[in-house]
Amino acid sequence: MGNENTLPLYDKIWLKYTFSRVMDSFTLFFLLLLLGYRIFYDKNYSIPCVLALLCESWFTFTWILTMNTKWSPTRTITHLDRLMLRVSESELPALDLFVTTADPVLEPPIITVNTVLSLLALDYPSNKLACYVSDDACSPLTFYALQEAAKFAEIWVPFCKKYNIQCRAPFRYFSDEDNVSKKEDSPEFYQDWLRMKEEYGFLKGKIENAAQNSVPLVGEWAIFSSIKPTNHSAIIKVLWENKENLIDVLPHLIYISREKRPEQSHQYKAGAMNVLTRVSGLMTNAPFILNLDCDMHVNNPKIALHAMCIFLDSKGEKEVAFVQCPQQFYDGLRDDPFGNQLVALFVYMGGGYGGLQGIFYAGTNCFHRRKVFYGLCPSHYIQNGKNGGGVTNEMEATFGTSKRFIESATHTLEGKMLTLNDNLCNSLEDATKVASCGFEHDTAWGKQVGWLYGSTSEDILTSLNIHARGWRSEMCSSDPIAFKGCSPQDNIVNMIQQKRWVSGLSDILLSKHNPIFGFLYGKIQFRQALGYVWFMSWGVRSVPEICYAVLPAYCIITNSSFMPKKIWIHTSLFVIYNMSTLSESLKTGLSIRTWWNNQKMMRITTMSAWFFGFLAILLKLLQISKPVFEITKKHESSSSDGRFSFNESPIFLPSTTILFVQLTSLVTSLFRWSLRVGSEVGYGYGEVLCSAYLVACYLPFLKGLFRTGKHGIPLSIIFKSAILSFLFVHLCKLTIIV
Ligand SMILES: O=c1ccn([C@@H]2O[C@H](COP(=O)(O)OP(=O)(O)O[C@H]3O[C@H](CO)[C@@H](O)[C@H](O)[C@H]3O)[C@@H](O)[C@H]2O)c(=O)[nH]1
Ligand SMILES: [Mn+2]
């Protein structure tokens, strides 16, 4: 047995998903067989066959990327007990907590408040924590809500710590009746519980009341009275300060609304994160940062300690830039009708990255090493005592002209602790300066340092840049799960989110930040680069998917075929692929229905949201329009019944059209059949089954045709799709004549 002090603080276990590997290899085998058969034996160069060959080649390429990512999965296990033996409480490093919010309507302040409360109650010495909330809406309501939250936190945090409560976001805690089951064993607990519930009710009431009657903009709120959310100077307020530096009171809480001017691009969330980095650099400058979106709360109060196991481990210390925790959601609907819970995805794909250079940064639920954001590489150490004028100029060109910030950044880069300001308010003037929108002008912020600009998936862009400098990352899947958040409530919000992701990802793929360049000119490992390409090519994938989806209909209508005579190749492929995805779902503990919903949503999302995300980037390349960061609507609890909703957005056009086209083709084939022209039929069961499969996938749309209200497809969409389908059928006829 090793010495207690040399044992690693975390271990990486290599998982053996042999069954998955075998099934995946079979799938690849049949894909290659199919391509080979088409090219060397079938040699059919009709339009549908050539198109099918092209699509199948792309699917094979995607499949190779998928297998590459999944092939060597790992799980990271942290040893809290060893950390506690090695590092005393007073030696734990400081941790700055960042929360972003941007719209008090789409992101109700009560949700942000819960996120903040759960952070303030972390099991970590509170004099090492500071919580910074960035409010991009500059909303007096959010400000007021946080102020009230700070008061409530004074009783909430001690309550959580006294009874070792697991979920420290009150709205979730009180929604779970099991949490009060201790009442028989401990009357004292029950009394406290009742009081907390009542006090939380008051807090919620106050915030709701303020939302309805709007906050009177006098006194402390006067500063909000004359501002427009898109045109105002920076507002930074210390809502609570742990002045005596005690370990058992509340951590600092700071409100930040950065300066905004209509003529200056604010770079969405990435811009907000960089302001948070600078302001916190001036105030507390912790060597580590945890960043959460306002819709995610802490579910495991010990998670910061788990992350420290990785950061402080002798190996992790040199290599690991960030520790990403999985994204999981509360109140998921039964059987995941919108396929947005991403459970199997994080297990199989997420685990797979662990065996490569590490999981990508997913924008939230992530612990960072601050110096990484200042541009440092793992092997690079800034030498002490290099304070000549040249270095200062270089630092100014990189970090901007704030003397105090450069001082703090230099400390971070040198790995030294900064003797902190005894009073946070002393930094307010400098903080306002670094939160101004002109501050980044002609600096490296957003280009080489901080969160990078230029993509609506700023997380992935930043992640790529970190891996390209040779850093590794780790996924920390603690039990209980580290954080829980709010997932899109219906298919419309889900589409908005997926479209934004895919436009951001396609943007990166088609830019100089492409992961393949990162491999050629940077330090991304080859397989990691392919792992990035796997999800960055989601947008591109929508084109062959749509093409492949209309092929069976085309063939039935034109009485031709896109499948080779050896139909068993396609059949085996279909069966094996579905068996393997099904078994993965079942092994992750999901139901058969969940699996089917995910399959179906995969088809629908790819051909609508991903396609539109991809189009958005083509429009950007043609300089016609620029993609924006559309914020998704957040809810405290689920309000959807799982039925699809529709509106007049063109995003529903491709799906409705594909459904119409399949229906037309099925009717056509039925006619031919009943007219007994079977002897001349050019297509086989394959094409008909493909069409039927697609109709099954698009069942929610079929139902939408017969529903009214928000669950029905609007007439305008039906009308436009009917025209498109008609044009398609007409086109099919034309190709026959040609
Ligand atoms: O101008 C903006 C726009 C957004 N946000 C914040 O960004 C976060 C993410 O927005 P959300 O609407 O919740 O998007 P999601 O799709 O749920 O977010 C995922 O995808 C984003 C990239 O598209 C990442 O930034 C997120 O971390 C990741 O969770 C929220 O806290 C927002 O308040 C800002 O601070 N400023
Ligand atoms: Mn979100």
Automatic annotation (TrEMBL):
Cellular component, GO, one term: endomembrane system
Residue ranges of the TM segments: 21-39, 45-65, 609-629, 649-671, 683-701, 713-732
Residues binding UDP-alpha-D-glucose: E107, D136
The protein's name: Cellulose synthase-like protein H1
Membrane topology: Multi-pass membrane protein
One GO molecular-function entry: cellulose synthase (UDP-forming) activity
Subcellular location as annotated: Endomembrane system
Active site: D136, D459
Keywords, sorted A to Z: Cell wall biogenesis/degradation, Glycosyltransferase, Membrane, Transferase, Transmembrane, Transmembrane helix
Keyword Transferase attributed: yes
Broad class of the protein's primary localization: membrane
UniProt-listed GO biological process terms: cell wall organization; cellulose biosynthetic process
PANTHER family: X-BOX TRANSCRIPTION FACTOR-RELATED (PTHR13301)
Binding residues annotated for Mn(2+), in chain numbering: K269, D293
